[in-house]
Design a protein that fits this description.
single chain, alpha/beta, 461 residues, nine-stranded mixed beta sheet, globular, 18 helices, 11 strands, two-stranded antiparallel sheet, 13% strand
Length: 461
Amino acid sequence: MNPESAEHPILSGSVAEPKFDVGALTQAELPMSVPYQPIRKADLQPDSGGTQREVEVFFRKMVPRIPSTTYGTFGLYRYPAKFIPQVVAYTIEAYGAPGKRVIDPFAGSGTTGLVARLYGLDYDLWDLNPLLEVLHAIAVMPVQIVDISAIVREAMRSERNWLPRWSNMEYWYPAQVIPLLARVWGYHHYHHDTYVRNLLTVPLLKITRAFSFNDPQRQKLSRSPKAIQRVKSLLEGEWEQRFAQMLHDELVTVLQKMHEYQKLVGEPYEVKANVVSGVDSLQLATHCDPSWCRWDILITSPPYLQAQEYIRCSKMDLFWLGYSEEHIRSLAKQELPYKQVEPIAVRSETYERYRQTIEEAHLRQMYQRYFYAVLGTLDHLAECITERLCLFVGPATVRGRSIPIDRIFAEHFVAKGWEHEVTLIDKIAARVMFRSKVNPATGIEDKRMPTEHLVILRRSA
């Protein structure tokens, strides 16, 4: 296809509504907010052992202010094991107030910060994955009137080319697609307007993945016959027109999601945000001193025990954002399964009991490193928390045996002087992690976590 073709409305400019109509969208009303209803103490029933109070909940229906888990910029990007916003919103409605300060040391795509901003809380977000800063910057942008069709035309016809420093480009993309990718990403990387660059980022990442041979249902980069067939179908006929239409539609979607989020914000609070990515959270936490590092609440969803390789999930996107193979490799080495972690005393009988059941040395090492790293980070930060620790975790499995991570966390912090208020148990409704009926490493049936648990701990008086 010739990009100058006048037959395609987006490329020729003859579209009926070339600009994103902010005015029409602003007629929509804010979702109704229902006052927070605290869980009554009478509802908190101890488990059979009498040591831990557990209550079944359904977070997605407990915070009507946020209509769905993917509403607004909460659904901007398909991040693995994403923290659902209703969990954070429930916690802030229960324990927060405007002007308080929260921290999430395993922030992922930044859900905790986006929710905190809605309620007027200052926040700090940390994550090893550099995508955090990129996604956060886009998610909180105000909506501006932009000519989407003009942006698409200019990107498709860009005279400035840019390709990532990636030795395997030809393995992951068909040859005829690479020149077009070079043009649109050249437009992105060299554009003078930060707003336009940010606006293009997620649409280009999505479409660049769609035209790759990578299978999105697998945790790591992986070619598959299914993915190859998908690309073959996309390349049938006027495929550059199809690419342009996809880019146009994705830009519209991003602007709509930005507008939805701004509706939730309403009258914005004066919020201070500090976002740090590309650095190991344990390393950051060790430099926190309670004399000058203070937060009211820690809210986080740590990496899953059995799925910690988020850098590898994001590898393709990081290349297109400009990160080198060396940089990505260095970040991957800092992920929990691979980095050396200083041992700590895990003060939980449950932790030790399950550790002794793990016979394989490499799995026992993985199990130990996970708790050393996560609890090590939380231990350092707990010294700087004035009110509550809120930890959202799931009972992951090792060799088919479920590990009660919530109990281990609760026991550990109770032994260190914190009070366990309650564990709220939420049924998992949807997943974006990789899918497989059988774990390829073990041959054992892959048993997914049916629930996730919010452990709420209060600093003792």
